[in-house]
Amino acid sequence: MHGRKRIPIGQAADKGKDQTKTNNLKKLLSDFLRNHHERCYSKEALKQNAQLLELNPEVYTAWNYRKLAVRHLFESEIDEAARKLILDEELQLVERALQSNVKSYGAWHHRKWVIDFGLSSLDHEFMLLKMLLKADCRNFHGWNYRRFCVEMKGMTPEKELEYATEKINENFSNYSAWHYRSKLLSPLIKGKENKEDVLNEEYRLVNQAYFTEPDDQSAWFYNTWLLGETKIESGPHVVGSWPEDGSSISVDAQEGSSFVAVNFRTPLDSEHRFESRTLTLVIYFNEEFSDVAATIRSKPELPHLSEVQWRSVSGTEAPSRAWLADIPVQSFAETEYTFFVEVSSPKECQNTPISFKLKYTKRGTSEVSRDQNSRSECYSWPSKKSSSDESQVGMRLELERLTVDPSSAEPGSIKQDPTRYLRRDNWQETVLEEQVDILRELLELEENSKWTLLTLARVLAAHGASRYTDEVLKLYKRLPDIDPDHAEYYKAQYSILYVDKITRSPDILQKLWWDVEDRLSAGWLRWNGLSLSDFRSVERLLWVQRLDLSHNQLRTVDGLEAMQLLVALDVSHNKLPNITSLASLRLIPSLQYLNISQNEIGDHQVDATRYSFPSVLTNQMCFSSLSKGNVNAERSWELQAVFGGMNLKVLDIAGNSVASDEIFRETIVRALPQLELLDGEQVKR
């Protein structure tokens, strides 16, 4: 724990003594199991059990046996002194067992169970804890047990704060004492009017700690907790939607077809179009919710809108930021509607209703143009176009220079001002600004302190002011060189903030647009070659149909599932480690073109993501669907788990180590019945 190895108590015995100890342990274990099975609670049986636990306190079943035995003996005694003697013997046994392993869960849990009878001296327990925490001040079992004893004795949190302060003053590196302090303070400051006074005092204490030892992590972690209690909170609100608030769309219905053509204009002033059986509304929140309710109204009024159900984008009960609702459009009349979407749960949601206009038109077969999304035979990937030509390089250099002015968004837009939902109090701003000054002062003394740089970035971000965005980006860009062990975390934070920054300005976002009218009905939004390792800030990109994320450092595509209009995705030349890292793409029914070439799929023997899926042994549907023919289902079952149900027409996997595996390729073809092109070649079935 905390980088410390467990050091055995005493010297290691020679092999002969070890063998004797092993034989003795086996005999004691055998006797204990027999007594447990026969429910024998004699003094001899308890003595043997005690010897077993003193040798090995990790035999949890032996502790449970003692509980049954103690309960049996306890209930057979009427005299309170005799009962207390039984419990005292148990406490003495626990002390002897802890000498073998002071971090034995079973021993500590048994001690709590004994104390819970209420017949033992808590003063004795506090004396033992004082000795224990003096010998090992970071023993979390001891701190947890102290919290239990404090509750049993009814001691006030204020009194315990004095003890925590004493332990911190003895050693600023005592992480457990800092953590204990946060647990004591949390209920004390909740809803209190003088919260700022308490937190100001805590900041003074923690500032003293990291000026004394800036490289010690304990005080910095406590500072992170303080920051969470101080940061300027924003209430629940919608940060993105499709259709966008204030937008207009048109729906063309074709006679004799269950599909309709949806036309809309993007924030970049380009025309987009797609075909669908329903109109799927998307609302995207600033935080995750496990349940969302929203009312949909229209003028003129449409029947059955009250019956429309909202669902999370994952389709499960797991909390989600993106929520969907399907509006059947076949029953529309040929007229223009105004829709209003108002969130009723969570109740605190601040910026609805969202409104948009919809014009519905019925057309004959000859009047509806063919959707070019289906033209897989003429499809080409934007990554085939070199990302190193002069225009691409110039555009990226310009992006580095540009800053984002959030006020440039159109009035009335839900993305207008990122700080307008912040619940501001003067004391919070004052505290955060003071912390910024203190951290900058410390940075002058310790210019390469990773904790100072990271905390400064977090404090500036918590302030919520867009004027700090560029400074935070510079901090996260600098941190990987100072702390390479956590480089991936810093790169992810940089990517999230960078994408958020760029998407706040349509003018800057326009520079990422690549129009290819000769090929498709709409162009690509190209985020290629930006060294992005995370792309979850999609709330302002829900309208995108073709997305180029090639030549980045992505290891997952999580977050893209909110982009329900996405037709084509290029994530070639990234660091995707396995097929299961693509799992969220299953949730995008419109996706037809996918390029995952030149990644690391198949390079990693251990796929940690795989264990979040049902195994082939329990997923009979997956197994049976792939076990036909010569396909090795046990080897490639995740292909069905990821690709099964997707509507892909074009898939590129070249450049991955699995791409040359014929069984792998055959399994993909089986999992994707609509696939037409695989690595540019016609699929043969």
Shape descriptor? globular
* Low-pLDDT segments: 9-13, 386-391, 403-422, 614-624
Structural class: alpha/beta
β-strand amount: 5-15%
For the record, the CATH architecture of the largest domain stands as: Alpha Horseshoe
Highest CATH level, the class of the largest domain: Mainly Alpha
Distance between the termini: 56 Å
In angstroms, what is the radius of gyration?
A: 32 Å
What do we call the CATH homologous superfamily of the largest domain? Answer: Protein prenylyltransferase
Whole-number total of structural domains: 4
Which fold name is given in CATH as the topology of the largest domain? Serine Threonine Protein Phosphatase 5, Tetratricopeptide repeat
Question: Number of helix segments?
Answer: 20
Mean pLDDT: 84
State the total count of DSSP E strands.
18
Helix content estimate: 40-55%
Biggest sheet overview: 8 strands, mixed
The strand line-up of the biggest sheet is 11-12-13-14-15-16-17-18
